[in-house]
Design a protein that fits this description.
Layout (H helix, E strand, L loop, with lengths): L3 H16 L5 H11 L8 E6 L5 E5 L12 H12 L7 E7 L5 H6 L1 H22 L8 E9 L5 E10 L1 E4 L4 E4 L13 H18 L14 E5 L4 H9 L11 E5 L2 E7 L6 E7 H9 L10 E5 L6 H10 L26 E8 L9 H6 L3
Antiparallel strand pairs: 1-2, 1-13, 3-5, 3-8, 4-5, 4-12, 6-7, 9-10, 10-11
Helix pairs in contact: 1-8, 3-7, 5-6
Length: about 375
């Protein structure tokens, strides 16, 4: 496995020379964090064996949400929270894609456009749920923003995982959509979803005071497919939620000024390889760093964190035990003693490292830690 920190060490100078004009403070912070993740330059934690009293210092992970080398535990915690909120209904995965003509606008105003992309996606499914004859109520959805394709190109889109069910607050009823005769179930017409989504986001962009592109397509793309109980879709979304856009075991080569990585082609489902220069590879990774403080995962409707009592009541009334699905969740791997193999306990954290390392020049210049 080739670590991202190794790639940064090798190509950082070339990357900064070529892409400095496109970088923001968020990019510099991510670059510095991932470069020093779990190295001798990062803070240390002291661990002690519970059996033989052996002690040692272990480097901290950087904790950056875009680092592929850490945040595994946070991803598992998020997945566990979502699985605990499952309800007995057929789940659907909806994908709302922003056309290519809007990517320049999205890049220039990331906070605004990403927020509108998520809110308009939710408003679209909420409108359809309220107007749908079998449902007629408020749905629940888990939304995750992705900005990348599997080839790591810039491609903003939102995934929504939602059960075909609603809560009618006025009538105090729980309604689910009956399964259709078609294989895989049916929720809403994807072409109708695309039309409403298009109208909502165009109006929202204009209301926000942004200028629409001179040209954009009349027909947009929204995908809607059944995902059964929803477990597989939630696992897929959680995989890259806190761990960047690429797994380190997919970086297969780093030599001769180039980096090769593998990905799965969505159309053919076959593994393919892409080779680019080292500087371009770092840009492909770092261009997907989100603005500081932006929440890329959000819950809406009756799945919102403020509706915990509603979920608990539904579980009782519907005799649903979501905990049975938590076998998917992996526990955090313990630190084992190299002497006897026993579990080691953390006794002290954030010990300054004697190897401070060098931060990128632009970071030091801006006074960032």
């Amino acid at each position: 496995m080739i670590r991202l920190a190794t790639v940064i060490d090798t190509f950082e100078a070339d990357f900064l020379a070529q892409y400095r004009d496109q970088l923001t403070p968020d990019h510099y912070r991510a670059l510095a964090a991932m470069k020093h993740c779990r190295t001798q330059a990062s803070p240390m934690m002291q661990v002690k064996c519970t059996a033989c009293e052996h002690q040692k210092l272990v480097p901290h992970s950087c904790g950056h949400r875009h680092c592929p080398h850490c945040q595994h535990h946070e991803s598992q915690q998020w997945l566990e929270r979502q699985l605990k909120k499952q309800v007995p209904a057929e789940y659907f995965l909806l994908t709302f894609t922003l056309p290519a003509e809007f990517r320049t606008l999205a890049w220039a105003h990331q906070n605004v456009v990403y927020d509108l992309l998520m809110s308009c996606s939710w408003e679209t499914v909420r409108t359809f749920s309220q107007n749908d004859k079998p449902l007629q109520g408020t749905p629940g959805a888990t939304a995750v923003l992705h900005t990348n394709t599997r080839r790591l190109d810039y491609h903003p889109h939102v995934h929504l995982v939602m059960p075909a069910a609603v809560v009618d607050g006025k009538q105090k009823q729980w309604r689910t959509k009956p399964r259709g005769k078609a294989k895989g179930g049916y929720l809403f017409n994807h072409k109708a979803l695309a039309k409403v989504f298009r109208a909502k986001i165009l109006a929202a962009i204009e209301t926000a005071g942004l200028t629409l592109p001179a040209r954009y397509p009349q027909e947009w793309v929204v995908d809607c497919k059944s995902v059964g109980s929803g477990e597989s879709a939630l696992i897929y979304l959680g995989r890259y939620l806190y761990r960047g856009v690429i797994q380190e075991n997919d970086i297969v080569a780093c030599a001769n000024g180039q980096v090769s990585f593998r990905y799965r082609n969505a159309k053919t489902t076959r593994r393919e390889r892409r080779t680019v220069s080292g500087a371009q590879f770092l840009w492909l990774v770092l261009q997907h760093v989100l603005p500081k403080g932006f929440r890329r995962a959000r819950n809406f409707g009756f799945l919102h964190p403020n509706c915990k009592h509603v979920i608990a009541l539904l579980h009782v009334l519907l005799k649903c035990v979501p905990g049975q699905t938590l076998a998917w969740v992996k526990q955090r791997a313990p630190i084992l003693c190299t002497c006897c193999g026993a579990v080691m306990a953390i006794v002290r954290t954030r010990i300054p490292s004697p190897f401070t390392g060098q931060l990128p020049i632009s970071i030091a210049a801006e006074g960032n830690p």
